[in-house]
Amino acid sequence: MRRFIERHTFWAIMILIVAGIFLWMIFAVWPDWLISAIGRKKTFVNTFLNGLTLAGLYFLVASGFTLVFGLMRNVNLAHGSMYLLGAYIGYEAAEASGNWFVGLGAAFIAIAFAGILLQVLVFRRMEGDDLRQTLVTIGVSIVAADLMLAIWSGTTYQFAPPEWLFGAAELPIISTIRSSGKEVFLKYPIYRLAVLAVAIAVGIALWLFLNRTRIGMMIRAGVNDRDMLAATGVNVQVVFAMVFAIGAGLAGFAGVIGGTALSIAPGEDIRYLLASLVVVIVGGMGSVPGAAIGALLIGLAEQFGLAYFPTYGVVLTFLIMVVVLAVRPQGIMGSS
Amino acid sequence: MIPDSRTLIAAAIAAVLAGPAMAQDDSIKMGALATLEGAFTVLGEDSMRGVKLALEEFKYTAGGKKIELITGSSDASPDSAIRATRKLVEQDGVQVLVGPLSGSEGLAVKDYAKTKPNVTFLNGSSAAQDTTLREPAENFFRFGTEGAQWMAGLGEYVYNEKGYRSIAVLAEDYSFPYTQVFGFLEPFCRLGGKAPADARFWVPIGNKDYSSVIAALPDDVDAIYVALGGADAVNFLTQYEQAGGDLPLVGGSITVDQTVLGSKGRTRDFVIGTPSAGPISDTWDDARWQKFVEAYKAQFPDGFPSPSLFAHAYYINTKAALLALNEVGGDLSDGGKKYRAVLSGLSFETPTGMVKLDERRNAVADIFLTEVSEGPDGNLLNKTIKVIPSVSQTLGVSYDEFLKYGPVSRENPKCG
Lengths: 336, 416
Fold this sequence. Notes:
CATH architecture of the largest domain in chain B: 3-Layer(aba) Sandwich
Number of strands of chain A: 2
Helix content of chain A: over 70%
Largest sheet of chain B: 6 strands, mixed
Strand order of the largest sheet of chain B: 2-3-1-4-5-6
Distance between the termini of chain A: 22 Å
Number of helices of chain A: 14
Structural class of chain B: alpha/beta
Shape of chain A: globular
Strand content of chain B: 15-25%
Number of helices of chain B: 14
Number of strands of chain B: 15
Oligomer: heterodimer
CATH superfamily of the largest domain in chain B: Response regulator
Structural class of chain A: mainly alpha
Order of helices and strands of chain A: HHHHHHHEEHHHHHHH
């Protein structure tokens, strides 16, 4: 941090100024000229929070994706199917038990198990053949999509989250001041705040797991040089299977979280696969902090685009991708 | 890899076999195209139920010939619809095609129809205005009505009965919602209602996260007119409720339809009382409709509590195709000329009353003004408020007069 400030003083000051303006825009009561320039404060702050919470969801999906890629150099294009399958399994479990958390747990465990099966039965057979593995994952995702359509049909499903997570909370942020002098506080859905909290918790847990545990050390060693790791006597296959289980499990977990925030329907698999691809391309393949930064950029871009220029909002996401690919092809946190 | 001669021969044989297969004399190939992928999957599934319901009623025979059904799937984008249509027409060799489902798909298939004058196209449920209004295709028929017709009476109703004067609009960004918004706003604005352009929000099909759009919705309007379909509508309604939204809604025809009300999960009680209009009404007590609902329920126990307007539209168009086939005795040997002449003059009894075609082969039929209410076993249903008889595509004025309103778009009508 200090090194960065010393080396790039100008940029550090710029970042500080931008952050300062942002904080002011969130907490201050907006003067009239600002409202006439970019619209109401409610829109701005809500959009910002939406961007953050969507980024949380994207991070949950993309972190597993990037973890698997980092270790195995394997672009798992069936990751979106894991998300959708997790959501459906979670829905069935939650319906059967009447408890949303059971659904959450069932999705994680079931999809982690499915991930192990995929690794052991499919990927191990074509190890080192990256292109073939990638093509096989496309096949798996197509077959899985049709099987899921056959089982759960095209109907839109929605989870019922626990009562205390439903509804809106009042935030300590003033939206406007009425002519009577009464302050109007901003309202925001509780569940989306919970999504953000879960994403941050998972992010921290992943960081601790990778940086503070023995297994995490092995995984990091595998990312750097898996042949050398195998040579030191570590059973690489077990590490692979475990990483795959965690990565897939996170996708299933995200399926329930995302299915509650939004909804589950056929086509979601492709949507989240595309989102995670964009996120890891922007953030850098194989880097968990990169996934967080990428998710943040893409989530905010998507939401601001949707609120301020809905028709062309989609372009913003890909614009970011184009700029990153042009300036830093390995991604923001990627190593070349 | 260089193919050896054996693979070449195999490929040549495959190419010959895949060419337009000639239909045998005792059967007619009929294609059905609907969205079985993407955000509108559930709509497409119900459409196929409509097709099968009509075919079952005719025991899969018409004009003394067996009907062979071949289905195709698109994802609501025009290019996917064209791909599926070409496959059905050029590879499978269907002579009659029912479909597509979504508005912009219909525009694309109509243009394609002009290049295949010997194939007869009947619309599915696609309801963009210009599929039949401007530059129609001679061989494209629409026995279900379209988006602007479906809105008949709704603009007047919310202005006069509900007393709404200003309205925000949230709709998907393609030809069908343009048509619906036009059909709703045209009378609403003529009466004096307001829907300024900066209070109209157009989102892409398949958008999941509406929270930012919800945040941007203005507070100073009386209601929000929502024209979203399928999963998009479910997402919006839930997120609007979660965000504590409290403005009353006015629904587009497919926004509070069974494809949305019948979705799994939390029941959306807050949509009760939402006015809408469309080609069907779930609770209409007419015997013809009740019979249709019974047949649907008996044949598809896993379907919706009540058939959606997609099942209805595909049913009507398939039935029209079969009735006309009966009339010509299954004879399509003249490239379907006689068949299409019969179709143009066809007028028949549907579950929602008599339907006939205008000179551009678009249906003139009854439209239902409805309101969401709770059914006897807790299902949400559209209750009939009023039936508006014989709504034409030009909404009561002459063709030339109607063209002066201009093509549907994001800004038509202005209504500032």
